Every structure is written in structure tokens, then in C-alpha cells.
Prior knowledge:
18% strand; TIM Barrel; eight-stranded parallel beta barrel; alpha/beta; 8 strands
Amino acid sequence: MCTLLERLRVRIFADGADEAGILRLAAHPLVAGFTTNPTLMRAAGVSDAGAVARRVLERVPDRPFSFEVLADDFEEMARQARVISAWGDHVYVKIPVTNTRGECSDALLGRLAAEGVKLNVTALLTVEQVVAVTRALAGGPPCLVSVFAGRIADTGRDPVPVMTEALGVLRPHPNLRLVWASPREVRNVVQADAIGCHVITITHDLFAKLPLLGMELADLSLETVRMFQRDARAAGYAL
Length: 239
């Protein structure tokens, strides 16, 4: 394993819904947990989200798993959260920071946390949202706060200042952990580690690129040239 990977302090959670991929990554020593969401499940062709979740939980019972509610109404979110939470002590329930009408879910979060439900609050993009979520969850059970740094970067903004400030908001509350969500490149792992972020989610495709971390650029250049040559020959191209 790459020495730089071994030195990482940030915990890596594999992000995906492909059942075979989840079980494969469960054997990797770098993977400390798993997350998924309805979009990933749909992309993976999942037809019964609950059935897939229960199967992988049986196979991987020793690491945290985050599964998302499927409702938009807060009361139905609460009902589904209790169902998901009952799947296991290592299960975190993903609740979006708002519903589709933009109404903050902080009251629901506080209610579920008071019941002992472990939560992964998702789709945060602003420090103000982090503050509201922290107020709702402080002093409760272990919870994750997922700030979508990759989507912040998609707008042309540097996510590092936002993530650093979010860490400061969470720091006084030992039950809360910050998740660097939706990373776009391996460099994001380095950034998350450098600021002391607790967790970063990595899609299965991005995970395959982690061995490139710290690779000499001249070696990568040569490998790129070899890739072009392999693909040209395999395709039978001629001029």
C-alpha cells in the first residue's frame, strides 16, 4: 500500500450502491465505513433499496453504514428513520438538511437524536446549515454532518475555507463528525486530511485512483503514454 495512504488520518467511507462493489471494498483495509443515497441506488439499478441494505449489513456488520430516508414529509422521514435505525447499531440514518420545499429539518433531527437515532445529515453546503444542524444534534448520539465539498467546488468556490470553518463549529461537540462529501479528485483526500476532517466519502470509481496518491509525475506520464498505445492497438486503429 502507498505510504502516503497509510499515513492518512481522515477515515475513508466508500460511497456507492453496487452490492458486489460494496462487498469487494469491505475487504480493503482503508475502508472504514460505507454510505449510499437514492441517486446512487438508482444508478446501480437497485429496485428494492431495503432488501439490498439488509443483505449488505448482514455481510458487513462491523463498520458504519449510512442509508437515506426516501420521504419528503418530515413525519414520514421520522417513521422511515426509525425503521432504518432498527437494522443495526452500526447504521446511520441519512436525513437531508431540508426537504424539497427548503424547510430546515433541524426540529426532526433534534427529535430523532433525542430518541438515540444515529444520524448522517446530508446535502449541507453552507456554514449556516452546519450551525443549525449542530444545535440540533449537540449532546446526542454519534452523528455525521456531511458537507458536500465537491458541489461547493462545482460552483467555482474553494471548499477548504467552508470545511475548515465547519470543523470549528463541530469541534466543541465530541459526538459530531464532519464528512467531506462528494469529492471530485484524489487531491480532495489530501485536502480533507490536511485540515483534520474526520471522514471523506469516496465513490467506487474514485477509490480506484487512490493508488496514484504520491506517484512520481514522470512515471505517471509514461503510464499515460503506454495507455494510449495499448488502446490504439486494442482498437486496431490505422492511418
